[in-house]
Amino acid sequence: MSDYRIYSPLPHQVSLGYSHTETLRDGRPQCRSHVRGERWGGHQCCKPGAVQVDGYWFCKIHDPEAARKRQEESSRKEREAYQKRMVSYAAPRLLRVLEEIASGHNDPRSLEAEAIKGLTTQTNKEEEA
Question: Does the global pTM surpass 0.85?
Answer without folding.
Answer: no
